[in-house]
From TrEMBL:
Residues 1-19 form the signal peptide. Keywords: Repeat, Signal, TPR repeat. PROSITE patterns: TPR. TPR repeats lie at residues 91-124. The keyword Repeat applies. It comes from Niabella yanshanensis. InterPro entries: CellSynth/LPSAsmb/PSIAsmb, TPR-like_helical_dom_sf, TPR_rpt. This is Tetratricopeptide repeat protein. PANTHER family: LIPOPOLYSACCHARIDE ASSEMBLY PROTEIN B, TPR REPEAT-CONTAINING PROTEIN PA4667.
């Protein structure tokens, strides 16, 4: 009898595992259809799979996502609402529901979804990001940047909040540093994202049009209320003479090399910062020039960048191999903009 019981458990486990593998396979097939733009087949596969697995929350979310991509917002809401009401609801369900309402321009309901989601999951970066984007649509930029900053603090390794915060600060007349810092962090976190090139161009423009355009960076630093930003501007002020020759990938490599040396001597102990530590690591490995070319070369002068790479092929190949072998993440506790 005991042997029969154990055998029954084994068979039951095998059936459950087979069912889970089938669901996983169907979800992957649907995602492949979505990635290829065949949304009708994605909906078909997910609908069939969900008919026999009505309690599978992940299937329902994928189906709602497919409807969302199809811009069938009514069906998307019909599908995601039961997930929101279930005990298995997670941050992505709230995010999707909010985004569907936002796409319908039902901003009141969208805001309700984001707020409910953040009440249950206050440390979710994507929810902060999307709620900030909604507030930006509603012409509430201060509310938007507050959400993006909170998102950076709560989920420092999620890139979306850095992108939106960088764009926000770039638009501010008096900001001199946060667009540069957040933009470069995003470029490293999301280097394969199509938005990466636009943010690199924005960072380069911020160096030209906001930071080194000033005739007196020391005075600008003294007027800066945020201690971290003040320290960064003070350190850049020491290299303002180099900027007189123009802001190029080459001159920025020199400026930023000297910046790191001065920063480490004066401020690194009080303000540990992953981005600056990464710069130092690249300097030690002899890859910082190549990194600055990767960061600024293509958006400054594509032909000049290609010429530089041809002349420094071994160095650039070494940097590329290193860059693609690691994931850049910001640790907790380095959100100095809020201090």
């Amino acid at each position: 009898m005991k042997k029969l019981f154990v055998t029954g458990l084994f068979i039951s486990a095998c059936i459950t595992l087979t069912a889970q593998n089938t669901i996983s396979s169907e979800r992957q097939r649907a995602r492949n259809f979505m990635q290829s733009g065949d949304l009708d087949n994605a909906v078909l596969v997910l609908t069939k799979a969900s008919e026999s697995n009505k309690n599978d929350v992940d299937l329902q979310k994928d189906l709602a996502q497919a409807y969302y991509y199809k811009k069938d917002y009514t069906k998307a809401l019909e599908t995601i609402k039961p997930v929101i009401a279930s005990p298995d609801c997670d941050p992505s369900a709230y995010q999707l529901a909010g985004n569907v309402y936002k796409a319908q321009e039902n901003y009141k309901e969208a805001e309700r979804m984001y707020k409910e989601g953040l009440k249950d999951f206050p440390n979710n970066g994507p929810l902060h990001n999307d709620y900030g984007e909604l507030l930006d649509i509603l012409k509430n930029p201060l509310g938007a940047i507050d959400q993006w900053q909170k998102g950076i603090q709560a989920a420092p390794s999620y890139g979306g909040n850095y992108y939106n915060a960088a764009v926000y600060y770039y638009k501010q007349q008096d900001d001199k540093i946060w667009a540069i810092i957040y933009g470069e962090i995003y470029a490293n976190m999301e280097s394969l994202n199509p938005k990466s090139n636009s943010i690199k161009k924005m960072v380069l423009d911020a160096y030209k049009q906001k930071l080194f355009i000033s005739n007196n960076l020391k005075a600008d630093a003294a007027n800066q209320k945020n201690a971290f930003a003040r320290a960064v501007i003070e350190t850049f002020a020491k290299q303002s003479g180099i900027s007189a020759q123009g802001i190029t990938p080459e001159s920025l490599a020199m400026i930023r090399t000297r910046f790191i040396l001065d920063w480490n001597a004066s401020y690194a102990k009080n303000y540990p910062f992953r981005l600056f530590d990464y710069h130092q690591q690249l300097m030690k490995d002899g890859l910082f020039d190549a990194y600055n070319q990767w960061m600024f070369g293509p958006v400054d002068n594509q032909a000049g960048f290609e010429k530089w790479v041809q002349a420094h092929k071994e160095e650039y190949d070494k940097f590329t191999a290193f860059h693609t072998s690691r994931i850049f993440k910001m640790p907790a506790g380095q959100t100095y903009a809020l201090k």
